[in-house]
Each structure stands twice: as C-alpha cells, then as structure tokens.
Amino acid sequence: MASQTRMERPQEEETSSEPFLSHYVNGFQIPMFPHGNFRSALEYKPIPGDVFIVTYPKCGTTWAQQMLVLIFRQGEPLESQKGFNDVSPFMDARGGKSAEDMPRPNAIKTHLPFRLIPWSEEAKYIYIARNPKDCCVSYFHHMRNIPHKGFKGNFDEFFEIFMTGKIHYEDYFDHLMEWYEHS
C-alpha cells in the first residue's frame, strides 16, 4: 500500500533521527539495533523444529511469546522474566546467535517481512496480525513513551507516518500481505 508514497531510502547502513531514531540496513528501516546483530539475524539458518513468532510491531508478539514459552515448558512459568529474552529471543535486535543459543524447544521473535525472513521448510512460522487501527495507536504510544525511540510528534503526525510506511519495519499492509501470500 505505502510503496506508492514511500520516500527514497538509503541503500547503505545509515542512521536517521527524523521523525524518530532509525537505522537503515540495505535500505530497510529498523530501530536502533546494532547493524551486525540485524545482519546476523538475516543470515540465520533455521534448524528443523525452529518456531518463529512473526508480527508487525505492536501486534501481539510478546503475548504470543508468553503463551508459547508456557506451552513449551508444559505450563511451568519461568522463574524470572529476566531470562525471557534468552528463552525466546528477539532475533532482529539480538542477532542470529541468540536463536542458535536458545534452549529448545522455544520460539524466535521477529518482525521481519517475508522477503527478509530466514526461510526453511523444516521450520514453523506463526504470523500474528492485529487490527491496523489498534496497531497504529499502540505503536504511537510505544514510540512516544520510550525516550530512546525519539518520536516527539502528535498522533496525527504519527498516523501519517504509519500510513505511508515511513516507520520501523515499514508499511503495515505490505508486511501483512507478504505473509498472507505465503500462508
């Protein structure tokens, strides 16, 4: 949807502070994750039995992670939430090694669009979608209330950014349709 109105994106590793802090890796806009971690996430080689939780940001990722961790642990909660990211790592931020090192079975969190996902016929991919209105409102509060995200605008400004795909992980509708076409 937003591909018609998308601005020219940097093709190399660059950083931007407008309208919020972002990195660009090969022209793809991400949060301020270390470039090396993000690149290693793209290069991760899934192993048989890997389970990926895939969502656009603010669409139920952590909720799904919590459920899968409990399923994989047969209902036994983690002793502490401190270890949650080791058990179910956010591969985009922490890199492919975090997925390699996690205890199995468990789930790997990612927001990658289908065209960038490490793909294997032997892995499982669970895609979670959310009403775009609810996603946009949640994403606005996330970007506004976390100081290191750097967004200072109002909701109307954020809505325009969201609808044109000039945001981390880019266009909501493109993300959804890429995955839908492969379901």
From TrEMBL:
Any one Gene Ontology molecular-function term assigned to this protein's record: sulfotransferase activity
Q: Which family does it belong to?
A: Belongs to the sulfotransferase 1 family.
What name does UniProt use for this protein?
Answer: Sulfotransferase 1C2
Tell me which SUPFAM superfamilies the record gives.
P-loop containing nucleoside triphosphate hydrolases
Domain of life, per lineage: Eukaryota
The chain positions of domain Sulfotransferase read 49-182
Record-linked Pfam families: Sulfotransfer_1
Gene designation per UniProt:
Sult1c2
Q: What UniProt keywords are attached to this protein's entry?
A: Transferase
The organism is Nephila pilipes
Q: State the InterPro entries in the record.
A: P-loop_NTPase (IPR027417), Sulfotransferase_dom (IPR000863)
* PANTHER family the UniProt entry points to: SULFOTRANSFERASE SULT (PTHR11783)
